[in-house]
Amino acid sequence: MSTYQHILVAVDESPMAYAAVEQALSLAKDLNSQVTIMSVIAIDPFIGVDFYKVAPAITDYFMQAEKNAKERLEDIKNSFVRDGIEVNSKLIHGVSPSQGIIQVADEVGADLVIMGSHGRTGIQKVMLGSVAQNVLTQSPIPVLIVKV
């Protein structure tokens, strides 16, 4: 088994993301790995529309989503710092979550991605898609999917 020197942990607000964080903490401690935690603010579904002038409430929603994501990343980052693990965080916008995860993994030189999965199956998976599935099939590096 190769030693993972740089682990990318993709998080959102779900309990599965926090389970992935716990796995990353354990693995990073055992392997003395550097960690980057990241989150993606979802693509605006109204790209190309003069949406922000028309709907200030939605602008507020996206601003709140960014604020919440920054706070979540900072809280998670502190968990790694407390354990003496070298950690950075990254928040990105304008791409799909799976694209963002793969892009950041490449940017930071990660050699392992850890992320949670909602574990949807059947019609839910077809209708809603699966970020974990997309990352798993598109990533050139190993991906550890954590399910609760």
From TrEMBL:
<dbReference type="GO" id="GO:0005737">
    <property type="term" value="C:cytoplasm"/>
</dbReference>
<dbReference type="InterPro" id="IPR006016">
    <property type="entry name" value="UspA"/>
</dbReference>
<comment type="similarity">
    <text>Belongs to the universal stress protein A family.</text>
</comment>
<dbReference type="InterPro" id="IPR006015">
    <property type="entry name" value="Universal_stress_UspA"/>
</dbReference>
<dbReference type="InterPro" id="IPR014729">
    <property type="entry name" value="Rossmann-like_a/b/a_fold"/>
</dbReference>
<keyword id="KW-0963">Cytoplasm</keyword>
<feature type="domain" description="UspA">
    <location>
        <begin position="4"/>
        <end position="147"/>
    </location>
</feature>
<dbReference type="Pfam" id="PF00582">
    <property type="entry name" value="Usp"/>
</dbReference>
<protein>
    <recommendedName>
        <fullName>Universal stress protein</fullName>
    </recommendedName>
</protein>
